[in-house]
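Our preliminary data section would be incomplete without showing what the modeling component actually yields. Below, a chain of 426 amino acids is followed by its predicted structure, encoded as tokens that our downstream tools consume directly.
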Amino acid sequence: MPPQTLKIVVLILFIITYIFLFALTKYRALVAAGAAAVFIIIGAMPVAEIGQAINFNVLMMIAGTMGTVFLFNESKMPALLADLIIEKTPNVKWAIISLSIFAGIVSAFIDNVATVLMVAPIALNIAKKLNMSPVASIIAISIASNLEGAATLVGDTTSIMLGGYAGMNFIDFFFFQGRVGMFWIVQVGLLLATLVLLMVFRREKQPIVALERTKVTHAFPTVMLLGTVILLIAASFFENAPTLINGYICIGLFIIGLIYEFIRTKSVKPIISALKEIDYMTLLQLAALFVVVASISNVGIIDDIGSFFINLSDNIFVIYTLIVWISVILSAFIDNIPYTATMLPVVSSIAAGMNIEPYILYFGLLVGATLGGNLTPVGASANVAAIGILRKEGYEVSTGTFMKISVPYTLAAVIGGYVMLWIFWS
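Predicted structure:
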């Protein structure tokens, strides 16, 4: 098939794939897997490159954290944390807000998928204790996690990529070249987005009655989760760390947890139960989406996006605005990891051609690409994981339900970041 024809075919198939992903909520994993298979068959994704296309680091992190979180949940610690939140919040609205802010804080320092997997059980326990749906609170946790992923060098893969490309370290995300860094910019976005959540949940005023505190059976899974957080942060300071280091950490601690459970119970049943609790359909969906997005990159569609920016204008404000908002739109539908990888050298080239420092464009790309994934259920890995958690609990979340919360939240956060970046870095 001629390259140009292949590009058109891939683009059409990509659009069809995402239409089905939004329409067939129960079968997203199968839709994604089917699309990936088609792209491989037509030659958009060479078989030899499939392993490179799939981000095994992310998949290992999700699988390992899912297992550890199951052990964490079985220890009754999430139930105790739910009791503590119920004691401190007057109604459902503030319980949801508290969980979203807590998830955001955690996600600034560890991957947002891991954050969702850690915090979601607390929300589920609160929902069960209050006999209410957990859908809204899980969505709020997911989008807050994605938002704060842009705040620090270790918060999200896109942040790690920017740090490596621009030669930035952990501290540079707080203060850089004598000006405020991304951390503070993102906090403005979080403040505005939280105000939006207060409006969205303004009618959720059901009072919360404190219950008797749950007793934790054993603390070791909690130690494992804390160990995950500490080791993920520590790994970010090693410049030559293995590519799969985060995945190794999460899988390794899960295995330690399984060994502990076997010693504690002298039975393999906890091991079998933990392995069953891993959401393999979510892992399949993410792996397939990595292949799908890599396919459109292979045929040059993402490169065309980069060229589009270069040819549009020589005005820095126009370029900055386009980078932010087009990144928001595109990241709602394609994975932001290959998009960011492609756009970083493009942004650098634009800055060099305009004889300016590239940092405002780098940061604008990070805001748009990271926060834009919040718009849809399939725009970010954390959202996919959150929907998977709800599906396992018996809740099928439609695209419309998700976007009623995610769209106003994302727009508020992006507008805040967009304005503050221009004020401090223009």
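The chain is about 75% helix and 0% strand. Residues 399-425 form the longest helix (27 residues). Preliminary results of this kind motivate Aim 1 of the renewal.
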